[in-house]
């Protein structure tokens, strides 16, 4: 029997989230609460670290609940799950950044964690100085960095700018330098959070190459990613976390197959409440909810490269003169890859009543794999802005490798608009 | 096949910690390279993009000395043990500025370092200690001016300056001890940095920076020694200007209270350490 390099027993982590402030409807009540505010504030801040044996309550969440796992040396384990499933918390506990509330983990080997790249970079210092600083922060020794220095500089493609303060670097150079240091770590266990999402595509590929090299050297790697393609490429075993628990644990292809089944994750629908971040609403019309659906009309966030995709948008406060909708799709690098306007579709938006649902169907995506997000723009009949919401929802495009058509980075389909009756 | 590397001997058990815990000084020693580069970062970045650069290390105490000489020396006529007031106050200010800078930077070290310790593990105790060591550079530069002033005022430099490192060590222990207490409190209660601003002001007037200890009643002297800066500042004046004997009694009491501050600070820090990343 092989010895486990990481052994996790019933690991749990409890967090206290923000507590609602009391509301006062009288001036006297407000004044009184202002006087005792320091006392209340003190209690609230103190509560951040004290739980008094409470295990539930409206302000307490369990980010992880009873996780038990064994990982053998040399395994490359992918960790997937929707936002808030506990992936990052698990990595933070194994990196010894936060302490578990219950349970234990035994780790046999030197750990390096990459929860972020460029940790500790100081913008006033030069590239050279930051390589040493960042390297030692990540756990390397001074001599080790000295030996690898030339390789790191070469990998980063920074060249003659190595003695320039990093605040003068372009963001691309900054990321490349940070990655170059990280790529030269040689711990026994490597813990990687989703750090590959930054940087240009070519450099990402280079980093992945370096990482799979690392993997072949017999190093144990824990890898969190939203990119199923990367997980499939790198990992032989994958763990699906859901609500802080292990939902699935098995070979990567099995876990991903189950994960991608519609209904497995339910984030393909988003309620656009008024407080939605980055929203501009000069008018009365409101986007209420957005859904993305697959061919079978099921809410779904994961699509294959040549799947069909529909976007449904619920709108309230509709005026009898009608309205105009635009959907804008952006890739991970923030580039606009698709923009359609309902005015170009063959639909009538006049006299619909106060609410309406509009749908756009893209018969074939034919785009490269990656994560995409959708912005919504609603205008009135004169095409003046009523409501604009950024990053309403996102979806994933994966490549299982049986596409016959050439893939593009932008969507070429025009799409079909429909008004759905309520 | 693969895996011809030596079997890992490094084993870590992660579990919730309860109660008090000893400081693992050997582990901190393992991170000496990190400590070195963090100190280097602090020193190199301090005066980046300033015109005067490290001259600020001299200017800050020097300008204060001028103000103090006018207000306290000329106008208030505070005695200075027969030493010219500018020299008297500057000798005290050199030590004080080091202590004040270390204390301020140390107590804010967890807040400013939260971007690092929420992403990577290393012994967190390094953070409040590093600024106390980095401030030594400023201190050394400012100290050199004392010697120039001594030449101007005709004070001979004698062998007693060998006592200075002992006094510096005492300040370093006091500042990092208080720094551990305050930084651990500050990461959770963000009132602390505001309080420290005031505390540092208060501590300066409480220390014999602008007045000599001979100004105070003799009976109070040993109680005052509990505040280590009494022994340190009087010691500085004695070692440099030798108008008064070396106050070993004050230094001894100060050393005991500094050690208590440092050890209690380290234990409090260790106890609070596990929640730093949660509240940061």
Describe the fold and architecture:
The complex is a heterodimer of chains A (422) and B (280). By secondary structure, chain A is α+β, with helices and mostly antiparallel strands. Chain A folds into 3 domains: 18-58, no CATH class; 65-259, 3-Layer(aba) Sandwich (Rossmann fold), CATH 3.40.50; 269-420, abc- transporter (atp binding component) like domain (Coagulation Factor XIII, Chain A, domain 1, Distorted Sandwich), CATH 2.70.50. Chain A is 23% helix and 32% strand. Chain A is built from 9 helices and 20 strands. In chain A, helix 4 packs across helix 5 (142-156). The model of chain A has no long low-confidence stretch (mean pLDDT 83). Chain B has 280 residues and is an all-alpha fold. Chain B has one domain (25-279). In chain B, helix 4 packs parallel to helix 8 (164-188). The longest helix of chain B is centred in the middle third of the chain and has 27 residues, at 126-152. The interface between A and B is large, with 52 and 39 residues.
Ordered list of secondary-structure elements with their pairings:
The complex is a heterodimer of chains A (about 425) and B (about 280).
Chain A: E1 6-16, H1 27-35, H2 37-47, E2 60-71, E3 76-80, H3 87-94, E4 102-108, E5 111-114, H4 127-137, H5 142-156, H6 171-183, E6 189-192, H7 201-216, E7 220-224, H8 228-234, E8 237-242, E9 245-251, H9 252-259, E10 269-271, E11 279-280, E12 286-293, E13 302-304, E14 309-316, E15 323-330, E16 336-341, E17 356-362, E18 370-380, E19 385-398, E20 416-420
Parallel strand pairs in A: 3-7, 3-8, 5-6, 6-7, 13-19
Antiparallel strand pairs in A: 1-2, 1-4, 8-9, 10-12, 11-19, 12-14, 14-17, 15-16, 15-18, 17-20, 18-19
Helix pairs in contact in A: 4-5, 4-6, 5-6, 6-7
Chain B: E1 11-14, H1 25-30, H2 32-46, H3 55-75, H4 85-107, H5 109-112, H6 114-117, H7 126-152, H8 164-188, H9 192-206, H10 221-224, H11 229-241, H12 248-273, H13 276-279
Helix pairs in contact in B: 2-7, 3-4, 3-7, 4-7, 4-8, 4-9, 4-11, 7-8, 8-11, 8-12, 11-12
């Amino acid at each position: 029997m092989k010895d486990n390099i990481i052994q996790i027993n019933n690991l749990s982590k409890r967090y206290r989230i923000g507590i609602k402030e009391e509301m006062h409807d009288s001036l006297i009540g407000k004044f009184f609460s202002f006087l005792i505010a320091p006392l209340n504030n003190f209690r609230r801040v103190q509560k951040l670290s004290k739980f008094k044996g409470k295990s539930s309550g409206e302000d307490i969440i369990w980010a992880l609940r009873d996780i038990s796992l064994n990982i053998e040396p040399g395994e490359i384990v992918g960790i997937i799950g929707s936002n808030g499933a506990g992936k990052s918390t698990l990595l933070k506990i194994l990196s010894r950044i936060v302490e578990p509330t219950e349970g234990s983990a035994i780790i046999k080997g030197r750990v390096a964690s990459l929860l972020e790249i460029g940790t500790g970079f100081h913008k006033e210092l030069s590239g050279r100085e930051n390589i040493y600083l960042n390297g030692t922060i990540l756990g390397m020794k001074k001599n080790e960095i000295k030996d690898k220095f030339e390789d790191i500089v070469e990998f980063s493609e920074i060249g003659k700018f190595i003695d320039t303060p990093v605040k003068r670097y372009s963001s691309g150079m900054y990321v490349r330098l940070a990655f170059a240091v990280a790529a030269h770590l040689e711990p026994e266990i490597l813990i990687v959070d989703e750090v590959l999402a930054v940087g240009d595509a070519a450099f990402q590929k280079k980093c992945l190459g370096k990482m799979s090299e690392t993997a072949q050297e017999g190093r144990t790697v824990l890898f969190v990613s939203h990119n199923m393609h990367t997980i499939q490429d790198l990992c032989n075993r994958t763990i699906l976390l859901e609500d802080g628990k292990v939902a699935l644990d098995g070979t990567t292809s099995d876990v991903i197959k189950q994960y991608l089944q519609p209904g497995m994750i339910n984030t393909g629908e988003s309620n656009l409440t008024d407080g939605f971040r980055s929203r501009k609403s000069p008018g009365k019309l409101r986007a209420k909810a957005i859904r993305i659906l697959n061919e079978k009309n099921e809410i779904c966030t994961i699509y294959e490269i040549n799947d069909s995709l529909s976007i449904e948008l619920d709108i309230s406060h509709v005026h009898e003169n009608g309205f105009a909708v635009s959907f804008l799709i952006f890739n991970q690098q923030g580039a606009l890859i698709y923009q359609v306007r309902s005015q170009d579709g063959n639909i009538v938006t006049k006299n619909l009543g106060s609410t309406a649902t509009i749908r756009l169907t893209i018969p074939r995506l034919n785009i490269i794999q990656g994560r995409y997000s959708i912005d919504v723009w609603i205008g009135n009949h004169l095409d003046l802005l009523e409501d604009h919401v950024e990053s309403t929802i996102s979806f994933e495009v994966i490549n299982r490798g049986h596409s016959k058509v050439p893939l593009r980075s932008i969507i070429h389909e025009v799409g079909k608009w429909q008004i759905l009756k309520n | 096949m693969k895996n011809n590397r030596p079997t890992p001997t490094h084993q870590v058990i992660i579990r919730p910690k309860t109660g008090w815990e000893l400081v693992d000084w050997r582990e901190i020693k393992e991170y000496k390279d990190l400590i070195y580069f963090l100190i280097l970062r602090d020193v190199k970045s301090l005066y980046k993009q300033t015109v005067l650069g490290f001259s600020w290390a001299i200017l800050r105490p020097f300008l204060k000395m001028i103000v103090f000489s006018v207000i306290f020396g000329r106008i208030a006529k505070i005695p200075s043990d027969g030493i010219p007031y500018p020299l008297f106050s500057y000798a005290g200010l050199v030590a004080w500025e080091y202590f004040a800078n270390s204390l301020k930077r140390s107590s804010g070290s967890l807040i400013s370092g939260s971007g690092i310790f929420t992403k990577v593990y290393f012994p967190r105790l390094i953070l409040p200690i590093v600024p106390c060591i980095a401030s030594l550079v400023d201190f050394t530069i400012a100290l050199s001016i004392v010697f120039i002033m001594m030449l101007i005022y005709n004070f001979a430099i004698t062998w007693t300056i060998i006592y200075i490192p002992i006094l510096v060590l005492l300040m370093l222990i006091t500042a990092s001890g208080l720094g551990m207490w305050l930084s651990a409190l500050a990461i959770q209660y963000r009132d602390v940095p505001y309080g420290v601003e005031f505390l540092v002001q208060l501590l300066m007037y409480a220390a014999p920076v602008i007045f000599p200890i001979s100004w105070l009643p003799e009976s109070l002297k040993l109680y005052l020694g509990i505040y280590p800066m009494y022994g340190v500042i009087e010691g500085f004046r004695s070692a440099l200007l030798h108008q008064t004997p070396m106050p070993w009694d004050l230094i001894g009491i100060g050393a005991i209270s500094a050690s208590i501050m440092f050890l209690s600070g380290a234990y409090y820090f260790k106890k609070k350490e596990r929640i730093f990343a949660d509240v940061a």
